[in-house]
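REQUEST FORM: STRUCTURE PREDICTION
Request ID: SP-0412
Submitted by: Lab K.M.
Chain count: 1
Length (residues): 320
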Amino acid sequence: MTDADTSSAGRRADDPVEEAGALARRVAANVEEVIVGHHDQIEHILTALLGRGHVLLEDVPGVGKTMLARSVAASFDGSFKRVQFTPDLLPSDITGVNVFNQKTQEFDFRPGPVFANVVLGDEINRAPPKTQSALLEAMEETQVTVDGETYEMPAPFTVIATQNTVERDRTYELPMAELDRFMKKLHLGYPGQDDEAAMLDRVVGNHPIEDLSAVATLDDLRDARQAVATVTVEEAVREYVTRLAGYTREHAQLGVSPRGSIALLRAAQARAALSGRSYVVPDDIQTEAWVVMPHRIQTATAETTGVDVVSGALETVPVE
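STATUS: Completed
RESULT:
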């Protein structure tokens, strides 16, 4: 790691895109002080952060979804809030509520936990759709409207949600309007034997999350996002994304939306920066397509999944 990689808060490198990639690599190394064996998933979360997206972590309980989200949030010096989704949670418990102030004889707005730089929605599918919908405006427009008043979210703003894949009789399906707002949907899976042994070694005594400190500032993240937005996407690459999305629409009941195409481009820009490039190549698109596209696709039969459709698209649609 170079001195530029560990530069103090706010310092800019000569190449902003390279500095953005260095930031992601620095944060990834910090997260891996806590999380063992999920390097690819960590990179996917960080490219989502740089690409101004939100992340949905779906898996069985106990594989480290919440700890991964906490570790990423702790690597930045911004605000972090956790919302434990439950069946009795109300939308106002997330967005906030107006409370009458007897001294001023006026209503004061008390912000909910959604007003943070990183918001962890833990087991988001345990709450009914009405409560889940409280996140829709914030995730898409970075604002919240309460009683006719609109409040801006802090910048940067990212939602990392976890979803329970078991106990289906006690959870609710996420509506497509909400799924489509997540840039990526990731799965962790069980660790390998060696990784699990290393994890157990780390948690003997104090948990490593307790000693994890921030290695980047919010200004660093804002600068990195601006730099990633300048990564070049040639017309041929944009047309490739359009053809991939078109394939999913032709081969599924519900294909990838234009929002999904935008998410794929932004994720690919971040992937290019992580790789030290200031331009997107088809490999970036193909790497990100597996986690950006499948959850946006609905198939007509249970025998075919979104992953199957994306696999067909990547195998069939030519790179021109």
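NOTES: Residues 1-13 have pLDDT under 50 and may be disordered.
Reviewed by: T.R.
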